[in-house]
């Protein structure tokens, strides 16, 4: 009986929304930024964050139980855990937890998870009335926070991608949905003979132009503002899809692959970089792909099925970075798709 109660409490602790929401509101209010080494009272914090003092006191009390804050009489201090929520902490937490950021806001669509699980459709449009990308297109602050989050998440991964594959095999690479250019910049910096072109939606494409200029890469990197559902620039040696297909259901993923195959022609290579489900993906991120986009992290078998519907051949599979796999795809030389060559040492 006692043991059962412990299990019940474990589940309750995991399920109650009080804790994740308390952390997200603390992040959104930038509470940690307002608490220095001498500590702050609830009244001071309420003034600085424009919140109700009694209600904020209750939030602070819960944060104390989580050991995000400590308390001495009426003064609150940051713990080591709480310091991770400061704007100057070297991490991406605020870009994820702030409920006014693109990703933090999208997480709130989890209240429609039941709908997503029943239907297989994205929860985000049901919760917000339109899809994630439409929201970003119309709200520059959301777009900016999303682009910043995408850049930050690849801070260590982009250099790994650049170093662990011989990109110098290609004279020209089109980075399809390349974001602000984090991956392409790393590739071009590491492989000086390669030229790149990035395709992304207009606001992000404009950020990419600035990033390439700041990196001194404008002579080798150009940017096209456009959609990957429209024809892509043709004739490049390689077409890169980095963390793109997991944002889309199969119908849209097929469209994107078709545009790449058309542009790549009979000699081009298509490179997919993603976390593979059941291999290097995270179940929570996979669920987020469902909730935000109706997409998913695919298994290798699902990728093979996807690719087989096109006149394409999965040539090799290799580890390219922490939690990322590279699928190298070429025009199909012989007919129906067969199992790829897996080279685990490619990534080393
Ligand atoms: C998950 S991010 C990946 C960005 C980049 N490839 C990387 O790995 O860092 C998805 C990207 O797809 C872009 N995107 C979404 N819909 C698009 C469309 N219809 N055409 C072009 N890009 C699109 C987004 O703007 C975003 O930059």
What does this structure look like?
With 348 residues, the chain is of the alpha/beta class. It has three domains: 2-83, Winged helix-like DNA-binding domain superfamily/Winged helix DNA-binding domain (Arc Repressor Mutant, subunit A), CATH 1.10.10; 93-147, Helix Hairpins, CATH 1.10.287.1350; 154-280 and 289-347, 3-Layer(aba) Sandwich (Rossmann fold), CATH 3.40.50. Helix content is 45%, strand content 16%. The chain contains 17 helices and eleven strands. The strands form two sheets. An eight-stranded mixed beta sheet has the order 6-5-4-7-8-10-9-11, sandwiched between helices. The longest helix has 15 residues, at 250-264. The radius of gyration is 23 Å and the shape is globular. Residues 344-348 have low confidence and may be disordered. Residues 133, 150, 154, 177-179, 182-183, 199-201, 204, 227-229, 242-244, 247 line the site of S-adenosylmethionine.
